[in-house]
Amino acid sequence: MSMRMSRFAALTSSLLLTASAALFGAGQASAAQADFGYVALGDSYSSGLGAGNYDGASGNCKRTTRAYPALWAAAHSPQTFAFTACSGARTGDVLSGQLGPLNSGTDLVSITIGGNDAGFSDVMTTCVLQSESTCVNRVNQAKAYVDSTLPGQLDQVYDAIDSRAPAARVVVLGYPRFYKLNGTCTTGLTEGERAAINGAADHLNAAIAKRAANHGFAFASVAGAFTGHEICSGSPWLHSVNWLNIAESYHPTASGQSGGYLPVLTNAA
């Protein structure tokens, strides 16, 4: 088993050793225990925008205890947990402001990044406010950016993570498809627009997965977890457009974080 693949096993072993210490005394067990450090990086899908109950101290980053990194940390009790993901973050923001907690003792890193670089917010605004042809053209522009420019930006982020935390298990999580086609929605976007947006999400995820694999990182798709919980489904885990709180539009709800992203990270960590 590789160093990257063994980090969650190390945490499990540490917890078992702690239990052994409680039963048989701390002598042997404490010597074998190792600290487990988890660092959560990324954008609004990692900070928890859309899930509510935001930490006022995080300001515009909109971090919340309802986000999947905080839920994972609460369930697994790592010795150290650094939560630097920030709403609106692009690859450059991760490089300039989120990597400080990483070090040679970091065991697990999670990250969602790339959607803002590709213009996710502008794509959705264009599709909501303008014609289907304009929406599709904007989607195609975003896909062209994903092909031409995003891979190099992701490489910079992944290189930086690898250099600062060379022994860490790095889990790169993807983005969900936003719409259930032929679903319950009777107003709003056209089916053509919804299909184009879903296709753009798949395109983005494929590019992220390729770059992650090239760096030896795990890519964890959330598309399956959100199937049946897209917008226009009977039980959506994503906010549709919300004119009263536009920032939360198209982001996971608290249920999307706990029922979608959390089990995916747990399986991949």
Topology:
Blueprint: H1 7-24, H2 26-32, E1 37-42, H3 44-47, H4 68-76, E2 80-83, H5 91-97, E3 106-112, H6 120-129, H7 132-148, H8 150-164, E4 169-173, H9 191-214, E5 218-220, H10 223-226, H11 254-268
Parallel strand pairs: 1-2, 1-3, 3-4, 4-5
Helix pairs in contact: 1-2, 4-11, 5-8, 6-7, 7-9, 8-9
Task: Describe the fold and architecture.
By secondary structure, this protein is an alpha/beta fold. It folds into 2 domains: 1-34, no CATH class; 36-268, SGNH hydrolase (Rossmann fold). It has 11 helices and 5 strands, in the order ααβααβαβαααβαβαα. The chain has helices at 7-24, 26-32, 44-47, 68-76, 91-97, 120-129, 132-148, 150-164, 191-214, 223-226, 254-268; strands spanning 37-42, 80-83, 106-112, 169-173, 218-220. It has a 5-stranded parallel sheet, with helices on both faces. Helix 9 links the parallel strand 4 (169-173) and strand 5 (218-220).
| Secondary-structure element pattern, one letter each | HHEHHEHEHHHEHEHH
Number of helices: 11
CATH architecture of the largest domain: 3-Layer(aba) Sandwich
Number of domains: 2
Average residue-wise pLDDT? 90
Number of strands: 5
Q: Uncertain spans, ≥5 residues at pLDDT below 50?
A: 16-33
State the share of residues found in helices, binned by percent: 40-55%
CATH class of the largest domain: Alpha Beta
Estimate the strand proportion: 5-15%
In CATH, the topology of the largest domain is named Rossmann fold
Task: Supply Rg.
Answer: 19 Å
Main beta-sheet strand count, sense and barrel state? 5 strands, parallel
CATH level-4 homologous superfamily of the largest domain: SGNH hydrolase
Secondary structure category: alpha/beta
Task: Give the spatial strand order of the biggest sheet.
Answer: 2-1-3-4-5
Label the overall shape.
Answer: globular
Q: What separation lies between the terminal Cα atoms?
A: 14 Å
